[in-house]
Write a structure and sequence with these properties.
The complex is a heterodimer of chains A (228) and B (99). Chain A is mostly helical and 228 residues long. The longest helix of chain A has 33 residues. Chain A is globular and about 50 Å long. Chain B has a two-stranded antiparallel sheet with strand order 1-2. The longest helix of chain B has 28 residues. With 99 residues, chain B is mainly alpha-helical. In chain B, a hairpin with a 2-residue loop joins strand 1 and strand 2. Classes of the chains: A mainly alpha (228), B mainly alpha (99). The interface between A and B is large, with 97 and 72 residues.
């Protein structure tokens, strides 16, 4: 088992990349949240207990355009419902007790589930999940404190191109899934549907409806598109 | 954003994660077809997040410097470049196009 845990550790380059990316996200998101909240303590508390940058941003976005508190909360929850889907996916691949299962659920994010699901054994899935979780927490917290306390020095983080870093990282993480035909179909349909619905559907729902991509891909026989 | 709002947002997000882990997993295990579906969900959902982060500007779609940065990243990923190279190239491309 310990052998599987060691071999399941993602490459250091991947972990450093995830850490740097979450540092960038921590800075960019928490500069915005701090501007909206106006309190360093609240910004840091929200970063820790919500642990969903997109939920915080969805809440702020709805409030900024004059939406009600309830509408903003619903937007934040809907955006986060993808973590429930990812947790369900992860839950089928792990064999651990309730405590570790609950801890894993509360830490479900796109990169750690994406990397973990590419492992072949339950212990490998769990090991990869926690390695990536550690890397992203390190980056997220350093970025959060930097954003809150040094945000005014950094200025507009998007001028540094940091808004392109997260989608690039996510793409790299699911690259292996895209090299298999069912995963490729799921991604194209899911991503395409989300893009098509973005201008017309309520915030967060396009991501939930992207689940259709996985359903469509069920009809695709498992066959490699390119050698991995 | 008050403390009440922060706590409500956090409780909602945590509940969704736990519901997925316990309720969703039980459902997937009960219906065999859902097991394969579970392995395809990350590809579909993460791709949707990528699409939103790459093309969304409020409620509209746009192709801008950020999209170009992600496109460069996609090419580098296809060429199997290391992940650090990918994210640095994405940020650099985007930043340069915004100069």
């Amino acid at each position: 088992m310990s052998e599987a845990r060691v071999s399941a550790r993602p490459e250091w380059g991947t972990l450093i990349g995830i850490c740097l990316t979450f540092f960038a996200i921590g800075v960019t998101v928490n500069v915005l949240v701090y501007e909206h909240v106006g309190s360093a303590v609240k910004t840091i508390a929200a970063a820790g207990i919500v642990l969903s940058a997109t939920s915080e941003l969805a809440y702020i976005a709805v409030r900024d355009v004059g939406g009600s508190v309830l509408a903003a909360l619903i937007a934040g929850w809907v955006v986060a419902s993808r973590f429930g889907l990812l947790a369900a996916s992860l839950g089928t691949r792990i064999k651990v007790g309730h405590f570790q299962r609950s801890c894993a659920a509360l830490n479900c994010l796109d990169p750690n589930v994406g990397v973990a699901m590419q492992q072949t054994t339950p212990s490998g899935v769990m090991a990869a999940f926690w390695w990536v979780t550690g890397a992203l927490h390190l980056g997220w917290w350093c970025g959060t404190f930097t954003g809150v306390f040094l945000g005014n020095i950094i200025g507009d983080a998007n001028k540094l191109g940091l808004d392109a870093v997260f989608p690039a990282l996510l793409l790299a993480i699911i690259a292996n899934l895209l090299r298999q035909r069912p995963g490729f179909v799921a991604a194209i349909v899911g991503g395409g549907l989300c893009a098509a619905l973005l201008p017309i559907a309520p915030a967060g729902t396009p991501i939930i409806l992207s689940l259709t991509g996985a359903i469509v891909a069920l009809k695709v026989p498992e066959q490699k598109v390119a050698p991995t | 954003m008050t403390w009440t709002i922060i706590i409500l947002l956090a409780v909602g997000v945590a509940s969704l994660r736990l519901l997925g882990m316990y309720g969703g997993t039980a459902l997937v295990r009960r219906v065999p077809m859902f097991e394969r579906l579970g392995s395809l969900i990350p590809a579909a959902v993460v791709s949707a997040v990528i699409a939103q982060l790459t093309f969304a500007s409020g409620k509209s779609l746009t192709i801008d410097a950020r999209s170009a940065g992600v496109a460069i990243a996609a090419i580098l990923i296809w060429r199997r470049a290391p992940i650090i190279v990918v994210i640095l190239a994405a940020a650099t491309t985007t930043a340069l196009l915004r100069l």
